[in-house]
Amino acid sequence: MPSPIINLSALEPLYLPHEMPSHHRVRAEREGEPARVVKGRRPSDIIIAQNLRRYVADWRETDYAGADSWQRD
Q1: Consecutive sets of 10 residues in the chain, 73 residues long: mean pLDDT of each?
Q2: Cβ contacts of 20-27, under 8 Å, gap ≥ 24
Q3: Whether the model pTM is above 0.85
Q4: Do 62 and 69 meet the contact criterion of CB atoms below 8 Å apart?
Q5: Residue 9: its pLDDT value, please?
Q6: 23 by DSSP, 3-state: which?
Q7: For residue 7, what pLDDT is reported?
């Protein structure tokens, strides 16, 4: 069985973890070509994904409020 070919460039991030996602990859039109990088969020018809994106965007705007808090038992 042949070993899988891994495209390492597909693993490179398009934005930093603390940044709002601004690009996404789209499969190449022809086999063997690299994926295209497209500006904007990847579209989703999943309602919960749309809601989560809105909540995370609001959380980013408040400078990640509550991310550094913890509770003692």
Answers
A1: 72 88 91 88 92 92 84 58
A2: 20/57, 20/60
A3: no
A4: no
A5: 77
A6: strand
A7: 72
Query: Contact 40/23 with Cβ under 8 angstroms?
Result: yes
Token pair, residue 17, equals 């973890």
Alpha helices in 1-73 (DSSP H): 47-61
Region label for 60, one of left (φ > 0), alpha (ψ between -120 and 50) or beta (otherwise): alpha
The position carrying tokens 């919960």 is: 48
Q: Rounded CA gap, 12 and 1, in Å?
A: 27
**Chain Cα centroid distance, residue 51:** 15
Q: Which residue has the tokens 């994904």?
A: 49
pLDDT at 18: 82
Cα separations in angstroms, 72 against 37, 53, 66, 69:
44, 30, 15, 10
